Amino acid sequence: MPAQKPIQIVGGGLAGLALGLGLRRREIPATIYEAGNYPRHRVCGEFISGRGQQTLARLGLREMLEHAGAVGANTAAFFSETKSTPPRALPAGAICLSRFTLDAALAERFRETGGELLAGRRLAESFGEGVVRATGRRAQAGENGSRWFGLKVHARNVLLAADLEMHVSPLGYVGVCKINGGEVNVCGLFRRRANENAVPQNWREWLRGRPGSPLNRRLAPAEFEENSFCAVAGLSLRPRQAASRAEICVGDAITMIPPVTGNGMSMAFESAELAVEPLAAWSRGEISWAEARQKIAHRCDAAFARRLVWAKWLQHLILTPSLQNPLIALASHSQWFWRMAFERTR
Ligand SMILES: Cc1cc2nc3c(=O)[nH]c(=O)nc-3n(C[C@H](O)[C@H](O)[C@H](O)COP(=O)(O)OP(=O)(O)OC[C@H]3O[C@@H](n4cnc5c(N)ncnc54)[C@H](O)[C@@H]3O)c2cc1C
Question: What is the C-alpha separation between 326 and 333, in angstroms, rounded?
């Protein structure tokens, strides 16, 4: 068999690690360069929902994640500051695991499969032949006069009405879900005007919600694990097509789906899986790098275009204060709306 050309992956988040694992299953030499180290906390709702769960199963990782303490989520409830839905069954279950554990477990597995993982190595962002971009979200100063920022902390001593609670307010939304180790993940996406500080200092107040709100009551007894706190700013939630990117990209490097869907990690896993076969063909010398790029972009756009459009509209509706209560009422009374909103965004 002729020698297979090696592939370098810049970014050892979920997309980069899943791609590395997929390539190693085909015995293709793969190196991942990761700017950070493992384990580390990430801003993420840590709620894996969608087809990426099947990717994890095909990579033979489900058992490992269960062993690492992944928790199943089967119900969800939505809250505005004055109304709520009852807990409702999710049309398909999700799995919840801290990124602290998840990323480190995938990194370890990648190394075990013979992959080379160079942590603490930030590569210059030049993506020639043989180099895949898995560098995550692309920073964006502002969108339509406002900026997005995300906050995440783990907490103990929180009793939830459903496996996932989603609390919406005029400032943004906060998801609270059970994760491994008896903790809950408290993660919010918020908007500020473009001329305000990127991330506010009083993050606890942002995550706890306004006094009197259901979120504030829910988190009243919470004990935050302060060392798990992290923040991110400069998010862009405008959908982009993979075909518009000059490089081969996987995960958020293609585009970010609004976090309310809980589908971003799934897209990272799915896009990695969609990239494996064209990259393997390039590695064997059967197609050019340009052909591989085209194939991967086409596959990703076909898989993600519809959900990105629905997610954009869903997030827009959820963040429109005058629509928050009508949406909660609709989700409470219409099984059709609940299913439709869930299925079209993943
Ligand atoms: C507020 C918020 C809540 C979210 N909640 C959820 C949720 O509940 N469920 C869900 O599915 N998704 C959620 N997401 C989205 C999810 O976190 C992302 O979709 C997912 O992390 C994307 O994985 P990735 O590998 O593409 O990027 P990342 O996980 O960001 O990984 C990219 C990696 O590349 C590295 N890197 C970057 N540049 C370089 C360089 N030059 N050299 C070397 N390394 C580099 C970075 O250090 C990083 O580790 C949320 C996102 C936000 C902002």
Answer: 11
